[in-house]
Amino acid sequence: MSDPRDTPGQPPQQWWPGQPRQQGPGQQPQQQPWPPQSWPPQQQQPWPPPQQTFPVGPPPPPGRKPGKHRVRNAIILSVSGVVVLIIGISAALSSASGGKTHPAASHSVKVIKLPGNGSASFSPQPAQSAQPAKPPVPAYTIAQRQAIDSAKSYLQSEPGFSKLGLIDQLHSKYGEGFSKKLAVFAVNHIKVNWRQQAVYSARNYMKNEPGWSCSGLIQQLDSPYGEQFTPAQAEYAARAVGLC
Q1: Domain span holding position 100
Q2: Mean pLDDT (whole number) for 83-101
Q3: pTM
Q4: Pair (171, 236) in one structural domain
Q5: Is there a single domain that holds both residue 156 and residue 106?
Q6: CA atoms within 13 A on the CB side of 3
Q7: How far apart are CA 170 and CA 186, in angstroms?
């Protein structure tokens, strides 16, 4: 870089910023600033450098107070825990008492104290026992119903029939004259203790025709020409009346 103030006719002198210039004849030397400034000038940084602070976590939303919802959630959780505990105790007491409910206990009201000045009340509902389903009533025809009524009438008025003897009585033309199918249907659809019927028959024999032995009465009761009881029913009846 040449100095514009070089003397004409002389070779230009090299000059760089920050170096003193050579003055020509008759020129006053220029004072250079001290300390010399660097080129280009640099901006001075403050010392010590300022410390930067960074926020920790997201800032709370505007208009909300941190911590308010935590208190409310804690109160709700505590109330829910107390209610669940009371319901569990009520269920345990109900199962321990065998599922029976008392009229006085069904109308009781329990009050629960909540945190602060609040309270809640509820009425425990008694457990309802399931009612057993009633068996459906069988639908019989008129002929079947008549045969059943006739069989019941014989057993009430003249006790001492065996199962086969009652079927023969209902089917016989000298008896009721029902068909064999209706007679069997009627006897199979009534509830009878045939061993007790054998005892009734043994007592009738001993009352009307006294003088029976143990084996003779058993044979008369289980004979196909007699009462047609089974051998076990006949032996039970003979022992029941004291012959064996």
Answers
A1: 71-122
A2: 69
A3: 0.45
A4: yes
A5: no
A6: 18
A7: 9
